[in-house]
Specification:
The complex is a heterodimer of chains A (about 300) and B (about 230). Chain A is α+β, with helices and mostly antiparallel strands and about 300 residues long. Chain A has two domains: about 190 residues, no CATH class; about 100 residues, Alpha-Beta Plaits, CATH 3.30.70.3040. Helix content of chain A is about 75%, strand content about 10%. The longest helix of chain A is centred in the middle third of the chain and has 43 residues. Chain B has a domain of about 160 residues: Rossmann fold (3-Layer(aba) Sandwich), CATH 3.40.50.300. Chain B is about 30% helix and about 25% strand. In chain B, α3 packs parallel to α5, α4 crosses α5 and α5 runs parallel beside α6. The longest helix of chain B has 16 residues. The two termini of chain B are about 25 Å apart. The chains are: A alpha+beta (about 300), B alpha/beta (about 230). The structure holds adenosine-5'-triphosphate (ATP) and magnesium ion. Magnesium ion (MG) binds next to α1 of chain B. Chain B: Keywords: ATP-binding, Cell cycle, Cell division, Cell membrane, Membrane, Nucleotide-binding, Transport. Chain B: Homodimer. Forms a membrane-associated complex with FtsX. Chain B: It is a peripheral membrane protein. Chain B: One of its GO terms (cellular component) is plasma membrane.
Chain lengths: ~300, ~230
């Protein structure tokens, strides 16, 4: 009985889908557009996230120690900073390593090379590179490093230059995120209105049929399910179209993205592949829920018999 | 079979369609309900299939022993399968064939395909349309369309057949055919309630006639005449 009813609902839904093929196509088109818009935001988010991640990755605090500070003392400072919750990672760079990198980097500068030759020992001290978990955490970390007990040990700190940059990035990030959310929210409202209206139109065009169904004793769920199914078809087809279009567009823009930000690689195709179920699954579930709610509301409102 | 006890119906804001109706119809009866336009006949029919609810008062509507006064909407489909309904405008689906229009009523209740294939032609034979299964409504006369509607109303083997002006759109000859069919259905044991305007039709029946006037039962005659 349940199987027969389910099968009949599917057949009714398919018939109704074909009978109103233009309405069905319009619905599919609009749902696909909505999917595309939402996924455009997903793309924007992915790009800005990876750009920001890349910039954040370049930000750290370098603590340059004086040349004569002993390694045990530095280890002490290191373990103190490590106790801060805001610290993600501390890297110790020994004076020898610093010298090696410095020499390597200036190997074409004969003056510097000569000076280094003349100096008997290593003129450079050790360095600690501190990475914070969040951009906002650097001020706390810097405060901790400013500890008077360390002022004799530290030659200089390499952070102050980044401060305004980080502030800028923070502002931009937050604005982009806020804008993206507002636009996403608007698209969701539009999608709700469109789906609600599509269901209403579908029900309106079937009013006669529904009225007769009610008269001959069809249950409400039997009457409702073909409409929901019909829209689920549309949702699935629209989702399929959106997926094809998105991957097509991604394959076109991916080559440009590799050079777009210097040093930043945004792998959008990879991102969509990795999050395929999460991205499209949630959108499909969303559209299905929306259909169930809209058709319940529309049927309740327009068919009080 | 049908009991309307102290039933009133007011359409907001202030149309009193029915006032304190008391009407009892026994199983197997053939009752005509007559009255002027706007007297409240269709309102009675709509109450019986719970398309509308009576005013909340002490009134009661009982159909086949079932108190449907405050029926839950979940139970309405089951009530509608016990009362076959026929209307003046037939209410057939234009894009479905005769067979499909009748089968439709069985499909929605979850009947199997084999049951549909065996019952639908039988019922269509009863209304004398056994050879027109594949026609579409627009290819049929008004009388034939009404017979399709009657076949559909009978498909659930209802205890009651409720016909609201079934001959309203038909000429005299077709009307007579439909009334004869209703009489035949009544002979099989189905209780028939016929709402009608048509003096000739009602007077020819020699059956019980209930007259409604301004929302009240003004006359109830065992072998009635349409007097107004
Ligand atoms: N939905 C409604 N809202 C308001 N008033 C209504 C509604 N339905 C019916 N009425 C009123 O109730 C009264 C009874 O209507 P009803 O349809 O029962 O008459 P009727 O006897 O069937 O008439 P007819 O012979 O013309 O079909 C009328 O005055 C009508 O205007
Ligand atoms: Mg009427």
């Amino acid at each position: 009985m349940i199987l027969i009813t389910a099968k009949r609902s599917i057949i009714f839904a398919i018939q109704s889908f074909w009978r109103n093929i233009w309405l069905s196509l319009a619905t599919i088109f609009i749902i696909a557009l909505t999917f595309l818009s939402i996924n455009f935001l997903v793309v924007i988010n992915a790009i800005s996230d990876s750009a920001i991640a890349a910039v954040k990755d370049k930000i750290d605090v370098s603590v340059y120690f004086k040349q004569d500070v002993r390694e045990t003392k530095i280890a002490e400072v290191k373990s103190h900073i490590e106790t801060l919750l805001q610290v993600e990672k501390i890297t110790y760079i020994s004076p020898d390593e610093n010298l090696r990198v410095f020499t390597e980097r200036r190997k074409d500068d004969t003056v510097i090379q000569e000076v280094l030759q003349e100096l008997s020992g290593n003129p450079l001290g050790a360095t600690l590179i501190v990475k914070a978990k969040n951009l906002n955490d650097y001020s706390e970390i810097l405060k901790a490093i400013d500890n008077p007990a360390y002022s004799d040990l530290i030659e200089k700190k390499g952070y102050d230059d980044h401060h305004s940059a980080i502030d800028n990035i923070n502002t931009i990030t937050n604005n982009v995120k806020r804008g993206a959310w507002i636009v996403t929210f608007m698209f969701i409202i539009i999608a709700i209105l469109i789906v609600f209206n599509t269901v209403r139109i579908a029900i309106f065009t079937h009013q006669q049929e529904i009225g007769i169904m009610k008269l001959v004793g069809a249950s409400n769920s039997f009457i409702r399910s073909p409409f929901i199914l019909e829209n689920i078809f549309s949702g699935v087809i629209a989702c399929g179209i959106a997926i094809s279009v998105i991957y097509f567009i991604l394959s076109l823009i991916q080559p440009h993205l590799n050079n777009f930000f210097a040093g930043v690689n945004v792998d959008l195709v990879g991102y969509f592949n990795a999050n395929f179920i999460a991205i499209f699954g949630s959108q499909l579930v969303g559209i299905i829920l929306l259909n169930i709610i809209s058709s319940s509301l529309a049927l309740g409102k327009y068919l009080k018999v | 079979m049908i009991h309307l006890i102290n039933i009133s119906k007011t359409f907001e804001p202030n149309t009193v369609a029915l006032k304190n109706i008391n009407l009892h119809i026994e199983p197997g009866e053939f009752v005509s309900i007559v009255g002027q336009s706007g007297s409240g006949k269709t309102t009675i029919a709509r109450l019986l299939i719970s398309e509308i609810k009576p005013d909340s008062s002490e009134g009661k509507i009982i159909v086949g022993g079932w108190d449907i006064t405050n029926i839950k909407s979940r139970q309405v489909p089951s009530l509608r399968r016990q009362i076959g309904v026929v209307f003046q405008d037939f209410k057939l689906l234009p894009k479905k064939t005769v067979f499909e229009n009748v089968a439709f009523a069985l499909e929605v209740s979850g009947a199997t395909k084999s049951r549909i294939n065996s019952i639908v032609p039988q019922v269509l034979k009863i209304v004398d349309l056994g050879d027109k299964l594949d026609r579409y409504p627009q290819e049929m006369s008004g009388g034939e369309k009404q017979r399709v509607a009657i076949a559909r109303a009978l498909i659930h083997r209802p205890k009651i057949l409720l016909a609201d002006e079934p001959t309203g759109n038909l000429d005299a000859i077709n009307s007579k055919e439909i009334i004869d069919l209703l009489l035949k259905i009544n002979e099989f044991g189905t209780t028939v309630v016929l709402v009608s305007h048509d003096k000739d039709v009602v007077n020819g029946l020699k059956k019980r006639v209930v007259t409604i006037e301004n929302g009240e039962v003004s006359q109830d005659q065992k072998v009635g005449k349409y007097v107004i």
